[in-house]
Amino acid sequence: MSKKLYISKPYGFCFGVKNALNIVEKVIISHPNNKIYVFNEIVHNKTIVNKLEKQNVFFTKNPKDIPDKSIVIFSAHGVSPLFRAQLQEKQAKIFDATCPLVQKVHDKVKKFSTLGYHIIYICQKNHDEAIGVIAENPHNISIVENITDIEKIQKGYEKYTILTQTTLNMFEVEKIFLAIKKSIPNVEFPEKKDLCFTTTTRQEATEKNSKKCDLFLVVGSANSSNSKKLQSIAKKNTNSYLIDTYMEIKNEWLEDANSIFLTSGASAPESLIIEIINFLCSEHGYIFVDEQSS
Ligand code: SF4
Q1: C-alpha–C-alpha distance, residues 59 and 243, integer Å
Q2: Which end of the chain is less enclosed by CB atoms within 10 A, N or C?
Q3: Probe residue for ligand 1, chosen from 24, 169, 198, 263 as the CB with the greatest number of ligand atoms within 8 Å
Q4: Quick check: is 129 catalytic?
């Protein structure tokens, strides 16, 4: 029996990542003699970050690392208002690569707070995106990472609304929504969740395709929220691993794997997917079938 390798689509960069990388590329070209500072990793992918570090790009989470009048790029995950203000004070030349979908959540925090709502924010509180969003109005936000956090939501507000980190597991978010509904009757649910389109379409494809294979590989870095969520969804249905490159694939994973599905998180370059396809086909005898789509 021939061993088959399929691709779970969509994969590769999302528009927010493409936009951020275009900005970095343009800034590098237009400032050839300057050190360029990026707050946080521009996107959470080791391969990209390592490559940019060789091009005079310096990644930091500490404003103290950034001298006055520097060139600074904000990452796709966004930044806190305090960091923005600190950089303005330093007279930095700022290029903002915040994904517009993340920016939308920042804007909603401000809008709903002004309208008198208390905000329930479903997120992973230590993720860069969540740190920036929470900092918009920390005293008016109750953080919910899982169902048990619902009991910690601040009581006594007349109006509540819910916001979500863009890259969470849509199936888990749904469960948390239902639990909040039971516990807080006066909560107003948003017409549309803040989960981004890239996240939901990949998660739906992952849920479907991971049921059809012996092994589901997700290309992405361990600190990439959307990549981790894909692997956690696939893991419920089959063997699944998160890998940065083909070099992390272990022979034992392939022993009983007659069919493999491969996908990537939104910040993983397509070149890594191609390397994996080449590796599995040339070194392990898989036949690549490019016909499955979401
Ligand atoms: S995953 Fe979604 S929210 Fe994150 S950068 Fe891409 S498009 Fe924007």
Answers
A1: 22
A2: N
A3: 198
A4: yes
Q: What distance in Å separates the CA atoms of residue 7 and residue 293, rounded to the nearest whole number?
A: 8
Structure tokens given for 120: 């329930």
What tokens appear for 98 in the block?
């915040």
Pocket of ligand 1 (CB under 6 A): 14-17, 76, 99, 101-102, 166-167, 196, 198-199, 226, 266
**Angstrom distance (rounded) from CA 189 to CA 191:** 6
Predicted confidence (pLDDT) at residue 236 exceeds the cutoff of 90: yes
> What whole-number distance in Å separates Cα of residue 216 and Cα of residue 123?
25
pTM summary value: 0.89
Terminal C-alpha separation, the chain: 25
Closest C-alpha residue for ligand 1 atom 6: 16
The answer for residues whose C-beta is within 8 angstroms of residue 88's C-beta and 6 or more apart is: 94
Q: Of 129, 151, 188, 291, which is the active-site residue?
A: 129
Residue-wise pLDDT for 69-93, tens only, equals 999 999 999 999 999 999 999 999 9
